[in-house]
Amino acid sequence: MIVAVDEFPSLDLSLLTERQRDVLHLRYSCCLSWRGIGTFLDVTPMAAFQCHERAIARLREAQGVYTSPYKVEA
After folding, report:
1. Which tops the pLDDT comparison, 58 or 71?
2. What's the CA gap between 45 and 21, in Å, rounded?
3. Separation CA 70–CA 29 (nearest Å)
4. Single pTM value for the model
5. Is residue 53, in this structure, part of any structural domain at all?
6. How far apart are CA 34 and CA 50, in angstroms?
7. How confident is the model at residue 71 (pLDDT cuts 50, 70, 90)?
8. pLDDT single digits (tens) 5-18
9. Of 51, 61, 62, whose CA–CA distance to 24 is shortest?
10. Is residue 50 part of a domain?
11. In a domain, 3, yes or no
12. Residue-range definition of the domain harbouring residue 23
């Protein structure tokens, strides 16, 4: 595991997989590109991006923030 929980104090990172936490750390703390993250984690850039998107979606859902174009607010 790469990321320390205190790097994102307002988020419950325990909701994420270790890989998702690593991707967030590499993207936001280390400022790596998708290619750089993919190389570091031995996955394709697209796999790194998709892992990031799933992590962000899970965190948004936990915070009650929905960004799906299919979600209609009443």
Report:
1. 58
2. 16
3. 31
4. 0.76
5. yes
6. 10
7. low
8. 455 557 788 999 99
9. 51
10. yes
11. no
12. 16-63
Question: Could you tell me the CATH number of the domain that includes residue 57?
Answer: 1.10.10.10
| CB proximity list for 18: less than 8 A, separation 6 or greater | 1
Instruction: Note whether 24 and 2 are within 8 A (CB).
Output: no
Does the residue 1 lie in any domain? no
pLDDT digits (tens, 9 = 90+) for 16-64: 999 999 999 999 999 999 999 999 999 999 999 999 999 999 988 888 8
- Torsional sign, CA 21, 25, 27, 32: negative
Amino acid letter for position 57: A
Sign of CA dihedral 31, 61, 13, 10: positive
Tell me, what amino acid is at 44? T
- Locate 24 and state its tokens: 């967030």
